[in-house]
Amino acid sequence: MAQAAEPGRIEERSFWQATMPPMPDRSGRPLPDAADVVVVGGGLTGLSAARRAAELGASVALLEGEQIGWGASTRNGGMCHPGYKQALSVLVREHGEAKAHRLYRETIDAFEHVAELCATRIDADFVRSGHVALAYAPSHAAGYAAAVDALQALDMPAHVVEREDLREEIGTDAYFGGIVVERSAGLHPGKLIAGLAALAEGAGAVLHEETPALRVRPQADGRSVVETSRGAIQARDVIVGTNGYTGGLTPSLRRRILAINSYIVVTEPLPPSVAAEVSPRGRMFFDSKNFLYYWRLTPDGRMLFGGRASMWPTSVARAASILRRAIIAVHPQLAATRVEYAWGGRVAFTFDRMPHVGRADGVTYATGCCGSGVAVMPWLGMRLAEWVGGAAPPALASLRFPLVPAPYEGRAWFLPLAGEYWKAKDRLAAREASRAG
Ligand SMILES: Cc1cc2nc3c(=O)[nH]c(=O)nc-3n(C[C@H](O)[C@H](O)[C@H](O)COP(=O)(O)OP(=O)(O)OC[C@H]3O[C@@H](n4cnc5c(N)ncnc54)[C@H](O)[C@@H]3O)c2cc1C
Question: Nearest C-alpha to atom 14 of ligand 1 is from which residue?
């Protein structure tokens, strides 16, 4: 087996944050007494909502507790794709074909919305690379032909790749087949956030950093008072986009979301021949484990590799060493490649593996992307602004938002137990894989 290189010094910081355009300091700006729309959260959801609300003529104050983009929006893999965490076949089974297709089409619209923004207004290294979903065990590939049929019915070009042909897509023999989905793209999340912030400001929204919203008090006249660390703002509407960082501001949302850490490492740049061997067509990859891996090349040819290291509390350094071993297991040709960046971020999981939009706690919200939000959250943010402006809500608003079925007020004590269960299922799949060779 290949000998691993010494890890060396790893920068514990998002590679995207380290390589994004410098951002102005947006802290300390005077807060207004009143605004038509107050947006809470300065990520993909909040910035898009702020931009659209301002374009529709509203006065907009956006409140971000840290810095613009500080949350998952500059910590993700930059894999922009239609679709939800929940499989299309499950949506069809649960909601019938017509509603499932309406729900799914929203993610295609969402993807094309980001594609259009990146083609016309934001340079975010957007490349329509397509992705490959990979079977970790032979049985995981069983439904692939039906999944491809379901995608094609929605005008989503896709095809099955048999195990013996996988080398045309990826430089490893670790998987048992895959589905290539053409309509997806890699992008630079930091550049996307910088662009969205500039568009929101260009439309007239005012962005306030280091300004956590502490409480929303609905008033008798239908307006709300948003209390912040720096004073209160009267708002006609409050839009919340806090996703995996949702806290006590919206207690009923917190009761419906599990915030789970996901971690990413980025290596030094790969020699071009190695990059071409690992990803001959420049695709992005996910595997089919519960503790899944996701990986791609960055615009400058590094390996970006992510996964959920553990449900137990862990450090970035420990997660980095787990992910480094995972890279080498999948791509032994990277055994001597150094990891240069490592970081973590919070993903908001919901009990039905679907994002949700709606009204609760005096606010209008979009949340719970379950790790698939780069396409859908900017679009949902925009649609929330249109909804509070009088347009119809997105189809997602018709879904019931299930409670997490355990006594839970923000600290998910049961997560490590659930994690052990999912890990045990992955171990069974690994046994099946090793028996199949
Ligand atoms: C490691 C990782 C990898 C991922 N990879 C992918 C991927 O490759 N593809 C994909 O589609 N999706 C991916 N995702 C998911 C994607 O990043 C998210 O869906 C998306 O960024 C969510 O955007 P958001 O604006 O809703 O939330 P966030 O970007 O998380 O922003 C929420 C913001 O709200 C702020 N906030 C919270 N409470 C308050 C308050 N009370 N007052 C003021 N501000 C507050 C927080 O500071 C934070 O900045 C990944 C996520 C993670 C963590």
Answer: 371
Amino acid occupying residue 46 = G
CATH number belonging to domain 15-398: 3.50.50.60
Q: Which residues does ligand 1 sit against, CB inside 6 Å?
A: 40-46, 63-66, 70-73, 75-79, 212-213, 241-245, 247, 249, 262, 264, 306, 345-347, 369, 371-375, 377
Least confident span in 56-60, 238-242, 260-264? 260-264
Contact criterion met (CB below 8 Å) for 327 and 305: yes
Distance CA 219, CA 174 (A): 58
Chain segment 276-305, per-residue pLDDT in tens: 999 999 999 999 988 899 999 999 999 999
93 CA distance to ligand 1 middle (Å): 29
Task: Show the tokens assigned to 68.
Answer: 């613009």
CA distance 157 to 333: 31
CA of 1 to the centre of ligand 1 (A): 38
Q: How far is the CA of 42 from the centre of ligand 1 (A)?
A: 9
In the numeric block, which tokens belong to residue 278? 């690992």
194-227 per-position pLDDT tens digit = 999 999 999 999 999 999 999 999 999 999 999 9
What is the pTM (predicted TM-score) of this model? Answer: 0.94
- The Å distance, Cα 277 to ligand 1 centre, comes to 32
Q: What whole-number percentage of the chain has pLDDT above 90?
A: 84
Nearest CA to ligand 1 atom 52: 76
Distance CA 307, CA 346 (A): 12
Given a cut of 80, whether residue 396 has pLDDT beyond it is yes
Q: Where are the domains of the chain?
A: 15-398
Between the CA of 100 and the centroid of ligand 1 the distance, in Å, is 25
The DSSP letter of residue 372 is -
